Amino acid sequence: MDVLVTGGAGFIGSHLTESLLAAGHRVTVLDSFANSKRESVPKGAKLVEWDVSSAPEPGMLDGIETVFHLAADPDVKGSALRPRENFVINAAGTFNMLEACRKSGVKSFVFTSSSVVYGEAKVQPTPEDYPPSPISNYAAGKLAGEAYCMSYSHTYGIKSTVLRLANIFGERSTHGVMFDFYKKLKERPSRLEILGNGKQSKSYLHVSDCVSGMLVAFEMQKSQSVVFNIGSKEKHTVDEIAQTLSLELGCSPQLVHQGGARGWAGDVPEMLLSTSKLESLGWKPKIAFGEGVRRYAAWLKKHY
Ligand SMILES: NC(=O)c1ccc[n+]([C@@H]2O[C@H](COP(=O)([O-])OP(=O)(O)OC[C@H]3O[C@@H](n4cnc5c(N)ncnc54)[C@H](O)[C@@H]3O)[C@@H](O)[C@H]2O)c1
Question: Are 93 and 44 within one domain?
Answer without folding.
Answer: yes
